[in-house]
């Protein structure tokens, strides 16, 4: 059974940083693209970043380019989202997705 668990969310001031983690189980983690999504109340879930299995190629939504970095450690079955220079508009529940499955999400709140 595919299972994804996110962690690392929390409350941070504008300009601060957080690192989210996503640990997978029940599948061969290294064989699948991993995505990070985010969602705020009343809005559609938005894909933020992805990392594939070929040379760890990455891509990002324009609003986070230069501030967020997605990475993966296949030995730990874990993907990461390093978020720097956070803004209030980055506040959302962040989800990872792989094999067509989402994790339960982790809340990120950027506020002074």
Helix/strand-derived category reads: mainly beta
On the 0 to 100 scale, the average pLDDT is 97
The ordered H/E elements are: EEEEEEEEEEE
Largest beta-sheet details: 7 strands, mixed
Number of strands: 11
Morphology call: globular
Low-confidence sequence ranges: none
Which band does the percent of strand residues land in?
A: over 45%
Quaternary organisation: single chain
Rounded Rg: 13 Å
Q: Helical segment tally?
A: 0
Distance between the termini: 40 Å
Defining key terms:
mainly beta; 7-stranded mixed β-sheet; 11 strands
What does this structure look like?
By secondary structure, the protein is an all-beta fold. It has strands at 3-7, 10-12, 18-25, 34-39, 46-51, 58-60, 68-73, 78-83, 92-98, 101-102, 106-110. Strands 2, 4, 5, 6, 9, 10 and 11 form a seven-stranded mixed sheet that branches. The chain has a four-stranded antiparallel sheet with strand order 1-3-8-7, with no helix packed on it.
């Amino acid at each position: 059974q595919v299972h994804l668990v996110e962690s690392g969310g929390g409350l941070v001031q504008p300009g601060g940083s957080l690192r989210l983690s996503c640990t997978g189980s029940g599948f061969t983690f290294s064989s699948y693209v991993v995505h990070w999504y985010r969602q705020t109340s009343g809005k559609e879930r938005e894909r933020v970043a992805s990392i594939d299995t070929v040379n760890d190629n990455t891509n990002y939504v324009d609003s986070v380019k230069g501030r967020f970095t997605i990475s993966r450690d296949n030995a730990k079955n874990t993907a990461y989202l390093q978020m720097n220079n956070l803004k209030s508009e980055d506040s959302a529940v962040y989800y990872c997705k792989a094999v067509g499955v989402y994790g339960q999400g982790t809340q990120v709140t950027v506020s002074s």
